[in-house]
Every structure is written in C-alpha cells, then in structure tokens.
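Appendix B.2, paired examples.
Example (i):
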Amino acid sequence: MPSANLLDFSARRFETQPFPHFCASAVLAPALERGLYEWLEDAATWELTTTDFYEQYEFSLLHIELPAHLRCLVEGEMPRLAIAELESAFHTSDLELVGVTIHKLTDGQRIGVHNDFIGPAESHRLIIQVNQDWTEANGGYLLLFNSANAEDVSQLVLPVSNSAFAFAISPNSHHAVSTVYAFRRYTLVYTFASAAV
C-alpha cells in the first residue's frame, strides 16, 4: 500500500484557541489502525511510568523490533508526511522526528493538567487515538485549558479511534486526560523538534 494512503489529514480542522492545534478524523488507513490495535492488545513491553501528575503505561516504538506491517509507523515516507502536515498547519519548517511512543491508560488512570513544555527539545506533538469500541462512558477525554487552572476548561476532545490531535508545545499548551473507566485507552504519540533551533 502506498505510504500516501496510510496517513490522511484531509479532515483537518485547525484552531488557535486555547492554543494552536488541529483535530482530524480517519487519519490512518483502516487496515493499519486495526493491525496496530490488535498488536497493542497483545504487546508485552509496557512500562509503568508514574509522575506527580499522571500514571500510565508506555513504551517507545523507536527502540523495539516492530512487526513488518507496522514498521511504516516509524520508517519511510509516513513520518515525513506527518512532518509536512505539521509544518504546513503550524507555519513552521525544519521539523524533525524525535520520539514515537505508545501510551496506555487503564481503569482509574488519568493525566492531570500540564503543558508538555521542556524547551526547544520538543516543539510539536501529534497524537493518534487507537481506541476501538470506545464509548463516552469509558471517559479518557482530552481536555484543553485556557490556563493551568484545572477549572478553566476550554474544550473537550473525544478520544474517538483513529482521530488525531496535533499541537504546538508552549508554556500555554495546557491539557489533561480525564479518568478512564473499564477501558484500555491507547494513543500513538509522535514528538517533533525544530532542527533550526
């Protein structure tokens, strides 16, 4: 399958508030999404990470041997297509891929308000939901905030499977994930940095 058919941002909707971001639906080819989901359900490489504002399972796709049908996620044209899309959407240039991880939140886990800002090492992030059979009762909503105040919610983004959320990382890119209930919430996370910095 040509790489151009593996990643589709034609349904992209860009917004500047509460911080620059875009949402898109049906971004991965159906066969790729299904293959990724099935692989994640059987994956045994999860590592539990705990900080002061979240607890989640995760691992990097850049440091493991991926099945042949999933190598396109980190190799070849697909990462370049993602870079081109973010450069176009956020009017930037010289982005380079610096991380590809999978995150998993399970029953009772959540992520508190944070902004992901660590300086020039990371400038943009693309998140793709891989949540087959998700319902609103399962929670795990992506919340966007006007400030660091947890009461200052601006938008709620549904973690619908095969949807994408991309944003420019800054001190103002405050977001969180609400509590997950009776579900395994998977996200494929691409992190980029500006090579010009």
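Example (ii):
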Amino acid sequence: MTWRCTGIRWNDGRPAIGWCAEGRGERSSLLDHGQRLAFAARGERHCLGVRRAGKRTPCPTAATVPGRAGNAQCPECARLDRSFSVAADTNAADPRTYRVYLAWFGPGLVKVGITAEERGPARLLEQGAVTWTWLGRGPLMATRRTEELLRAALGVPDRIAYARKRAVRGRLPAAADRAREVAELHARAAALPGWPESLERLVCETVDHAGPFGLDGLPAPARVITGMVPGGAVVGRLAGAAGPDLHLADGLVVDTRLLAGWELVAPAEGGATAVPVAELPPLAAPGEQDGLF
C-alpha cells in the first residue's frame, strides 16, 4: 500500500499535508511553524485521479505525471475534473449558496472571486490571500454575475499568477494598512449599481491571515522548487505556509502542488535539500513594487 501526497490542506486555519492511498481513503498531517521537515520522493509521480464531494476516484490507468507539472492529474482525469468545475462554468445548476469575496495578496494585487458558502474561508487560505472580506452571498449565478460586475467596475482580475503573490510576500505593509485598502475597495463595490437582487450584501469585516501564514517570521523568498525527481530531498525548518507554499527558514519555498502524486519517505541520514530550484529575484525596495511586474 502506497500513501501519496496530495499537497497542502488547510484544516481549521492550520496547514497540513494531505495523503491518499487506494482503498484506504485520505488523511492529513498537521504542520507547525518551526518544525523540522525532511522528506524525499520515491518511485514515480502518479495521477491522483478525481476528487468530488470529498471522495477520490483513482485514475483508471494509474498514469504517471511529469515532475514539473503543476497539477498531479493525467489529461483524462483533468478533463473529468473540469467537467464538474464551478470556476469553468460547467456546473451552473449547483444548488448551493455561494459567497463573493474580495482578496488582497500584496500592494496592487487584489482579486474578486466566489466560493461555496459551506467551505467557509478555506478558499482564501488555499489561494494565499493575506487580507480579505466577504462582499455578498446568494445563488451561484447571482454571485457569478456580481463577480463579473465588480471585476469590470473596480478594474480587478479574477485570477492572479501565483508567482506574483509569492514575490511580494516577504515585504508587506502593516496589517492596518492592508485592512484599510480592503475596506476602501469594499466601500467602492457596495456603492456600485447593478447588483443582482437575489444577492444578499454583506458588511465589510476584514480578516487577516498573518497568524495562520506565519507572516511575521517569514524570510524573504530566495529560491523556489521547480519540480521533484526520484530521490530528490527537502530538508529544513518550516517558517510559515501560505496558499500551497511552504516557506523554509533558509528562504526556500516548497510549492506543495509539485509534491502531489509522489510517495514521500524519510531521506538518507544526514541528507540535505537536493531538488531542482530556481533563484528568485530580490524584493524591490519600498516604493518600487510596481517594478516587479
């Protein structure tokens, strides 16, 4: 029986590494800031199949997946997964209540999105949102129309490249400044005409993830893993976690999406990090953030 990593999971606001094994379901290992991490990849990386309504259907062909792929699925499973995706507008009949949110990731990095109400703030943790607030709640299509309205009127996207979020995470303004920017955007959104009548508007209540992410003790990101290889090892001390990223004390960032699909085992005694990495550019000085992008 092989337990394969499924990437990071956020359990009640705490990061955890997820695992699955065919016929044994899923489990997770909670992580604590400051703990030592040490693991190595064994064998080949395999497709994790499709997960729907909390249950995972294994890949019928047990296909292998490239080590540098950001998604641990074969093309067939990825297509099936997308056929149920709200984000891809392929499940418009979903009867659940949804919420519209405003998420702030760094200076100038703000997006509007939707998530199922039953998931609570999990989506914001998964995306690495530093500060955020709800905007409204209602049926799926009403929240989708609101999302489009606010994106156009406020000039904010519904997606932000993850490398951009990571690049600014090591130097952020104070929590009060983050909250003020989000509150100002919420006020602008609330003043716009054209909100669907079936959407219940929600007052601004900003939430900050500095605690769950460990932002106060986070080193500037210096290197990021670009893929795992058989025998590749990661050894270090966990400084914090945000979205799918594990930030180690030496500045290495481990994107757990690249761990998904691998069997992870203890590395050789006295082993050190030995995986493909890319150097990250130094952070811009205050006032030069626009130059990053």
